[in-house]
Amino acid sequence: MQFHILTLFPEMVENGLQTSILGRAIQKGLIGIHAVNIRDYTQDKHNKVDDYPYGGGAGMLMQAQPVYDAWKAVAKPAEGKKPVRVLFMSPQGKTFSQEMARELAQEKELIFLCGHYEGIDERVIEEIVTDPVSIGDYVLTGGELPAMVMIDAISRMVPGVLKNEDSGVTESFQENLLEYPQYTRPAVWHDREVPPVLLTGHHKNIAEWRQAQSLEETKAKRPDLYASYLDKK
Q: What ranges in the chain are assigned the alpha helix state H?
């Protein structure tokens, strides 16, 4: 799976995505990270990519032309070619979720558009963006961190990225439930014991205990998810 990130700070996303599990996935050729410097596509002799907003207001806006040309170089739009989805990191977008990560992981390519300053000229957003996406109700200085968060979550759904294939489907938010508590050795630590059922080796009883714990955790900590779970039952 190929991730293209249109950004003013390519080194930020490259450094952040080439370590640990994602770094190994890149080395194995399971995913690819292609950071594209929008500044390379400006036609301004001073290498500028921003200007003052029409109508006044604070800050600067990224111009449409360099963003469009950077997208065009990556997407290579042509008749008969399936368009590559463009995800724009925006607090106005649909909130990112595990369900969305699973759905996006089915794509062969994705383009992430990272804004900066006070945003991007609306005309190019209307021209190229297919999916405005938010990672939460707060504002960041740029779209790079949200893009990295999404790429991490999506990559986990790509076959082969996780060593244990079950890890991607037995985590929090599976079926709108939080993950059950987990324990490792020693069996007693600070006078706290591992739940006895986990030491029995009885897989059916362990599975039932974990399901019950997931329900309890979700009901107590995320009643909104618990309500969604009950609605789907």
A: 10-17, 20-27, 64-75, 98-104, 122-128, 144-155, 203-221, 223-232
Residue 151's Cβ-count burial label (10 Å; 0-12, 13-18, 19+) is: buried
Q: Which residue has the tokens 């207001």?
A: 57
What's the one-letter identity of residue 180? Y
pLDDT-based confidence at residue 172 (cuts at 50, 70, 90): low
Mention every residue, 6+ apart, whose C-beta is less than 8 A from residue 175.
229, 232
Instruction: Decide: 17 and 151 in contact? Cβ < 8 Å.
Output: yes
Torsional class of 211: left (φ above 0), alpha (ψ -120 to 50), beta (otherwise): alpha
pLDDT in tens, 89-129: 998 999 999 999 999 999 999 999 999 988 999 999 999 99
